[in-house]
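**Backbone shape codes:**
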Amino acid sequence: MINVTNLNADLLLGFLDDSDRETRNKIAWILGELQTPKAIDSLYYLLREDKYQEVKEKAAIALGKIGGGKVLDLLKEALKEDDWFIRKCATSALGYSKGDRCFSRTGSRR
């Protein structure tokens, strides 16, 4: 198991555009675990534009773990996408999302 708390998020961001999908997938997961706000725009780009579903899904979950108002707004925007898989990922990510304007899984306001 990797200890993500000692990793430098700034160095990891550059790997989100790596040509290897497994690298992008793992880096997205790590950035989500680190709850790296600097990664929000890059992760949202992966959610919308990556050609591999597993990368899209991992990016969405990472966004949900980072949470906050900006993430909530982006995930709500993703729910309007034509691509059903992007909508599915955004819906799942909202279950992980945190922030003043988010709801818990029980439906109560956080």
Summary: Helices lie at 9-13, 21-34, 40-49, 53-66, 69-78, 84-94. The radius of gyration is 13 Å.
